[in-house]
Specification:
22 helices, two-stranded antiparallel ribbon, transmembrane, mainly alpha, two-stranded antiparallel sheet, immunity, endosome, 600 residues
Length: 600
């Protein structure tokens, strides 16, 4: 059999007919250059373009999955380690035998203070850090700080635990603000890659229609929170596979507990000071912490290796070039927007409800009645319910956007009113199914809350110049709410439920009022984002000395053209010489497709 001819002719090789083809053009080394390097005659440009943008869309999906998995592993390791650490340090025998008079309770209280108090200052530095490092690298740095917190538990001392807890508190708001910004940007990029033909017709500088990325944002936020809520289940694996084997049963730990639920005060009043039957070996603890450290390192690799950039390089330069003073001020200036002011109660409630599920309900209703050994299963029920219900956010594709938020708030309202009148008896297991059922329903409400809020912010504020500011404000208010819960941890359960109920009603009312204003056509007042001010030095962009100056009306630099950096032409005997082309096009202009002043 004869060999099949190659699909593509080899450049420089002689044809079977000899050194000339059938048109008389010489082949081989003496062939014309166009014949050697020209496009293949069967090349289909439209098909290649379609394949290119399909790869781009798959890359965006990969970015969303990698960021979701990285966030899930990071938060799961953090919660699991913190939970195991607090239970071990609570046991009186463990403290005395392992650490003597080192004062572990005092170290734990300062560690929790560092985690809960430090984020209060996050509004001052989070936008600056995100703009300085970039969204992806801010995520990577924050995940690395979480891994640092895990590593310090190999050597539990004041000078390791407390500084790492403070660093962790500083990284909480930047991590989740950059995560929210990243998912929103991925939805916008997916729209661009799906409608690339429309983008070509409109031109590269034309913005897509408002709200065009909303369907993709709904899907990506549902995927992200479906992964994220699984972190609460992942955090219980150290309890199930390690710590539960060392715990006393409920008859010992709950022996002095007299009241639970709505009649309880503080956190587990009367709980036994010894919860461990036997002390875990140090070698076993090191193995568990090494596994958690490996998972945290895996999360870092996921973010580093699989998450692509959220912005193009020229966009990153533009975001930094508005001036660091402006970047610092803009989160505060966004308070003038009535939409954000109306959503602040929902931001606060979002922090209240997730911490109430993990501490107030899980401890005051769950552990207080069915024992510490069932804490992990209660939180797993909450986690699985929230993860599955995150997919309900896709209902926003067909229903009004207010439906998920209002439905989640209504479900939490019913559950909160029910908890007001329920006081389960200690050491009684026949009502445990009610606890699991309430945990699942609370998870459903949490999922509708988180998914609805993040999607709403991505729809209302779709300008890429604002998204990091908006998500910083959102997660900062959540951090403030968590700090308030930390301060009020010793309050009676009825007071906690009353605060939760008032905040929920206020949040739902304020949100519906905001939607009514938008339907009436009231235009929100947004702060102006200054235009980027570039200073060219070779191929680098450096900031102006006074980075706060922008081209505001009456500003000192208004009206300066492309030749602003050039010295004024010297006046000749007949007056100033006419201005000619003053510089070559910079890389930024080349990326935008312009040729600078030389084309004029």
């Amino acid at each position: 059999m004869e060999a099949e001819p190659p699909l593509y002719p080899v450049a420089g090789a002689a044809c079977p007919q000899g050194d000339e083809d059938r048109f008389g053009v010489p082949d081989g080394p003496e062939a014309p250059l166009d014949e050697l390097v020209g496009a293949y005659p069967n090349y289909n440009e439209e098909e290649e373009e379609r394949r290119y943008y399909r790869r781009k869309r798959l890359g965006v999906v990969k970015n969303v999955l990698a960021a979701s998995a990285g966030g899930t592993l990071t938060y799961g390791v953090y919660l699991g380690l913190l939970q195991m650490q607090l239970i071990l340090h609570y046991d009186e025998t463990y403290r005395e035998v392992k650490y003597g008079n080192m004062g572990l309770p005092d170290i734990d209280s300062k560690m929790l203070m560092g985690i809960n108090v430090t984020p209060i200052a996050a509004l001052l530095y989070t936008p600056v850090l995100i703009r300085f490092f970039g969204t992806k690298w801010m995520m990577f740095l924050a995940v690395g700080i979480y891994a640092l917190f895990v590593s310090t538990n190999y050597w539990e001392r004041y000078y390791t635990l407390v500084p790492s807890a403070v660093a962790l508190g500083m990284a909480i708001v930047p991590l989740w603000a950059s995560m929210g910004n990243y998912i929103t940007r991925m939805s916008q990029k997916y729209y661009e890659y799906s409608h690339y033909k429309e983008q070509d017709e409109q031109g590269p500088q034309q913005r897509p229609p408002r709200g065009s990325h909303a369907p993709y944002l709904l899907v990506f936020q549902a995927i992200f929170y479906c992964f994220f809520h699984l972190s609460f289940a992942c955090a219980q694996l150290p309890m199930i596979y390690f710590l539960n084997y060392y715990l006393y049963d409920l008859n010992h730990t709950l022996f002095n507990v007299q009241s639970c639920g709505t009649k309880s005060h503080g956190i587990l009043n009367g709980f036994n000071k010894t919860v461990l039957r036997t002390l875990p070996r140090s070698r076993n603890l090191i193995v568990v912490e090494s596994v958690l450290m490996a998972v945290a390192f895996l999360a870092m690799l996921l973010v580093l290796g699989l998450c692509g950039a959220a912005y193009r390089p020229t966009e990153e330069i533009d975001l930094r070039s508005v001036g660091w003073g402006n970047i610092f001020q803009l989160p505060f200036k966004h308070v003038r927007d009535f939409r954000l002011r109306h959503l602040v109660p929902f931001f606060i409630y979002s922090g209240f409800e997730v911490l109430f599920a993990c501490t107030g309900f899980a401890l005051g209703y769950g552990v207080c009645s069915v024992g510490l050994e069932r804490l992990a299963y209660l939180l797993i029920a909450y986690s699985l319910g929230a993860s599955a219900a995150s997919l309900l956010g896709l209902l926003g594709l067909w229903l009004p956007r207010s439906v998920p938020l209002v439905a989640g708030a209504g479900l939490h309202l019913l559950l909160t009113l029910s908890l007001f009148f329920w006081a389960p008896l200690p050491r009684v297991l026949h009502h445990s199914w009610v606890l699991y059922f309430v945990a699942v329903l609370w998870g459903v409400g949490s999922a509708l809350n988180k998914t609805g809020l993040s999607t709403l912010l991505g729809i209302l504020y779709e300008d890429k110049e604002r998204q990091d500011f908006i998500f910083t404000i959102y997660h900062w208010w959540q951090a403030v709410a968590i700090f308030v819960v930390y301060l009020g941890s010793s309050l009676p359960m009825k007071a906690k439920l009353a605060v939760l109920l008032v905040t929920l009603v206020t949040a739902a009312t304020s949100y519906l009022w905001m939607e009514q204003k938008l339907q009436q056509g009231l235009v929100p007042r947004q702060p102006r984002i200054p235009k980027p001010q570039h200073k060219v030095r070779g191929y680098r962009y450096l900031e102006e000395d006074n980075s706060d100056e922008s081209d505001v009306d009456g500003g000192g630099e208004q009206g300066q053209g492309d030749c602003a950096e050039e010295e004024a032409p010297q006046a000749g005997p007949l007056g100033p010489e006419p201005a000619g082309p003053c510089r070559r096009p910079c890389p930024y202009e080349q990326a935008l497709g312009g040729d600078g002043p030389e084309e004029q």
